[in-house]
Amino acid sequence: MTKFMSTRLITADVHRLVAFYETVTGIGAVWGNELFAEIPTAVGTLAIGSDKTVPLFGVGSAEPAANRSAIIEFIVDDVDAEYERLREHLSAVVTEPTTMPWGNRALLFRDPDGNLVNLFTPVTAEARAKFGV
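The structure assignment produced for this chain is given below.
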């Protein structure tokens, strides 16, 4: 059996990135030590680790602030309300709340390391059914 557990972001500034995701999610981080923290959600965990841990996995195996392909996504009750709440904390908004062709209203922005983050609310009946909301 395989069970998805977490996505880990590698960063040069763990405290900055953890504080950002605590603000975005409203969830307090669980710190393992000064080099690693987790934002636990009901579905999975967003882990944030220091670039100082990379040699443990293999020198050069991960690089902070270099992601250009993955999007970290969170489902929220009201993406427009979240945009208003977070607006002053977002320095790089890619797409303001927009209803997508697949039925989600989505806000896309970058975290302090440049990783893409999508907050979305299913708004069509089909999308709400897909996510059970």
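Interim note for the steering committee: The mean pLDDT is 96. The chain is about 25% helix and 35% strand.
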